[in-house]
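Reopening closed ticket. The problem is back. First fold of the pair:
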Amino acid sequence: MSEIVNRVEQSGLISVDLADYCPKNSEFMGFDFEPSLWNGLVLKEKDFREYVKTFDWNQFAGKHAYLYCSVEAILPSWAFMLVSSKLVGIAASVSIGTLAEAKQKALELYIDQLDTTPFTDGKLIVKGCSDIPQPEAAMSQFLVKVQPICSSIMYGEACSSVPIYKKPKQR
């Protein structure tokens, strides 16, 4: 009887699951502008500045903050800047939008800070079935980060992969 050989293992392929780069134990916390609105409709600068001044920002310590408004309201652009300025140095990150968008931004930050050394001259295969928000965006960002140092990048599984990039041979 012949020995079973794992040809995928011998191929030198590096399997990458982007879910492995998702923030594992990160906490997310939203800041809703709604409680600071005058008559639930509009933000008044003087009142809002007082609200921001007395708000407990420390509850966002180490968390990924996302800013949103749960009601239809008129919000000036500077209001987002003012709140963001209070979160600098406290929150792990700040984004505008939904919880899903905050998770996407956190993943992008992790990919941005990724040590690419293990992928140098590697043959990567990026898993297609990943439990991450907006996998296309994360995959594209990952590709942009590692393509300059890889010899090849594929998408899918070892048994059925789609070639994405192959480093041109040097003459």
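Second fold of the pair, where the issue appears:
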Amino acid sequence: MQDQTQIFGLRAIIEAINANKTIDKVFLQKGLKGELFSELETLLNRNAINKSYVPVEKLNRLTTKNHQGAVAQISPIAFHNMEELIANVMESGKTPLFLLLDQLSDVRNFGAIIRTAECTGVDGIIIQKKGGAPVNGDTIKTSAGAVFKIPICKVDHIKDAVFYMQASGIKVVAATEKTQYILYDVSFKEPCAIIMGSEARGINPSTLKVVDAKAKLPLMGDIESLNVSVACGVFLYEVLRQRL
């Protein structure tokens, strides 16, 4: 599966971008120069494609092929347009439920969340273009194929998605311990979206300031937090419980 989500070589990656392939991230060899390399850099910047400059050893670990100093991770899925998705769901007559993931970094957590989201009737998942886990072979495997069944959208910043959802009449609820309200105090019966934060730092503080509600899980043990995919599952099933 991993080989199907990789392209290597400068010219091959340039052609993939020009052919509108969905590219998650490109790894470029530190210090590399040349006309073709500059052309690729320009294309990456113009298309706002996530890139990272790495030592050649990292590229050699990613592929044993002749990579010429560049390896791209391509997405096995086509991403949806968020505005169109929200409009379609709102017009469908059902009560919308969206999930926003603020730069989750672990592909297995991402895959597990997608699987739970599909099982709980989430209408779409919104992720940020930069800084989050890619949709790759591990994501597909952990999601048990759910990645092909649920629309996923990419936005420049999660806060942009929050504002758009609020303007569309969707209540945005942040899953965060920085609140006095527990999950069971919040109503999820109206159109809503839940934001889950990254494993390391949670939800971006600037995003937390603009949400409609915050909620935390009651924790009875000494450990102060749950794994993000487990926490997400608890939130989604509470939405389901309230709506059934």
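Update: turned out to be a display glitch only; the data is intact. The radius of gyration is 19 Å. The chain is about 35% helix and 20% strand. Please close again.
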